[in-house]
Design the sequence.
């Protein structure tokens, strides 16, 4: 009996680039999501079109529109990724045992989870493994990781209150290094309208829900003119730049207090501006079936 040939499918990187570009209708936005360049996404799509022998997009200055072939291929890719995700989740669940898995962004892991990691691990018990995984930004339309029991997210609409816990109630205020504060003491002591000559450290990638400088300006006042902005791919880099005296970063309650207490950062303004936004820990479908995951979720609420 003749052996069956392996499935003939395009390279995974090309499929991921295509999925993102098809969802956004724009190669540049896809590149930002995938943390790569527009030219790299364009090359992946071109290779995919060569591999398939079909044109997938009509390119224009306004963006990229799927052809009929591209639309049909998008449906197949989406279904395939979803099937792979389900299979991976089922395999991961069988292999995990006494393990709690929290999925979150890199910044949330760095500022929210890791400072509480040791206390959380001790409260769960020595026989429990606590694992932190980072969102897979290239497939945002799917859950972040098939092994995840808990996902940290701003979006909890329609989630049963028993399946979610508040991790952070958002409050924001500017922060900078002690050296920067001393060098610009007179300006910072005045109204925000006079801060136009300072550098504001900002994020350049799509925001999953965190407040922005515009939210703080709306509440505290707006600098005159067009302030200088330095852009960073993630919040961790922006805080490091602020610590290094490169400008003013937007600081979040429960994220910057340790740096302020240690003297690495100085808090500016008249206290935290409350946005009303809430950051949640949400049980995944897999997590809802695990008593250990529910216990971990309750502890996250206690530790905030």
Sequence:
């Amino acid at each position: 009996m003749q052996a069956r040939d392996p499935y003939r499918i395009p390279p995974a990187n090309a499929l991921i680039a295509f999925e993102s570009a098809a969802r956004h209708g724009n190669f540049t936005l896809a590149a930002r999501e995938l943390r790569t360049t527009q030219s790299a996404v364009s090359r992946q799509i071109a290779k995919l079109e060569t591999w398939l022998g079909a044109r997938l997009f009509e390119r224009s200055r306004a963006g990229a529109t799927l052809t009929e072939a591209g639309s049909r291929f998008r449906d197949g890719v989406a279904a395939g990724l979803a099937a792979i995700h389900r299979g991976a989740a089922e395999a991961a669940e069988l292999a995990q045992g006494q393990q709690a898995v929290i999925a979150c962004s890199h910044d949330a892991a760095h500022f929210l989870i890791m400072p509480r990691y040791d206390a959380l691990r001790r409260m769960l018990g020595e026989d429990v493994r606590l694992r932190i995984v980072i969102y897979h930004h290239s497939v945002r339309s799917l859950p972040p990781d098939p092994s995840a029991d808990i996902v940290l997210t701003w979006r909890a609409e329609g989630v049963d209150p028993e399946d979610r816990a508040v991790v952070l109630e958002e409050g924001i205020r500017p922060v900078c290094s002690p050296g920067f504060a001393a060098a610009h003491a007179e300006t910072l002591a005045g109204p925000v309208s006079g801060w136009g000559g300072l550098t504001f450290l900002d994020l350049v990638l799509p925001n999953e829900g965190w407040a922005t400088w515009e939210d703080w300006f709306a509440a505290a006042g707006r600098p005159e003119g067009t302030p200088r902005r330095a852009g960073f791919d993630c919040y961790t880099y922006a805080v490091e730049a602020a610590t290094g005296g490169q400008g003013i970063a937007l600081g979040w309650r429960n994220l910057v207090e340790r740096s302020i207490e240690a003297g690495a950062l100085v808090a500016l303004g008249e206290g935290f501006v409350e946005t009303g936004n809430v950051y949640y820990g949400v049980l995944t479908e897999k997590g809802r079936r695990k008593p250990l995951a529910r216990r971990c979720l309750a502890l996250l609420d206690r530790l905030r």
Remarks:
- Residues 138-142 have pLDDT under 50 and may be disordered.
